[in-house]
Write a structure and sequence with these properties.
Length: 197
């Protein structure tokens, strides 16, 4: 299913991408070296990197590579509304970040929005299964056809690429889809049924 208010969803997803570009521009213009604010595994000093890592990118090509997936998946994930999107994004952000903090090599600083992209993709792929929605399953089928090859990124193999961020971001997306489906079922079960006399 597509967002019921596509213009608002487009503005929100585009605004998030613009924020990523502004952060990268600030990192380039100022001698702040913001990239050192990413996740440092199993270091208390690097724990706050969970909050900042998805906003930081190593260079413009890193950001360019994440732009289209982030834009598309964030837009589609807004199908349940802004409140649900915030909850889903926060779940992916935290699960992905904690997973990286627990499992990444200690000598590496992990940054980038690809964990969010993998999380939103996983969320979009499985939400129809949990909610038993034909419309959501149709969207998932299209996404799997177009972006399915991206899922190989959850496996180790490419030097300098955080498969941990991809894997735990995706797991966060699956968890978010399960939580949303449970909340939707609970809400539906509490709704007043049709009365017959």
């Amino acid at each position: 299913m597509l967002p019921p208010r596509p213009l608002a969803a487009g503005i929100i997803s585009l605004s998030f991408v613009v924020l990523l570009y502004l952060v990268e521009l600030i990192d380039v213009l100022l001698p702040a070296n913001l990239d050192h604010g990413g996740i440092r595994a199993r270091s208390l000093a690097g724990l706050d990197g969970i909050a900042w890592a998805p906003l930081l990118h190593g260079d413009w090509s890193h950001l360019f590579a994440n732009t289209v997936p982030v834009l598309v998946f964030a837009f589609l994930a807004l199908a349940g509304g802004i409140g649900q999107w915030i909850a889903v994004t926060a779940t992916i952000w935290m699960v992905g970040g904690l997973g990286v903090w627990l499992t990444a090599p200690p000598s590496v600083i992990t940054i980038g929005a690809s964990g969010l992209a993998f999380g939103w993709l996983a969320y979009l792929l499985v939400r129809g299964v949990f909610s038993r929605s034909v419309g959501q399953l149709a969207v998932a089928a299209v996404l799997l056809f177009v972006w399915g090859g991206m899922l190989w990124g959850v496996l180790p193999g490419t030097p300098g690429v955080s498969w941990q961020g991809h894997l735990f971001g995706a797991l966060g997306g699956v968890l978010a889809a399960w939580i949303v489906a449970r909340a939707d079922r609970a809400r539906q079960s509490k709704a007043p049924g049709n009365l017959q006399t």
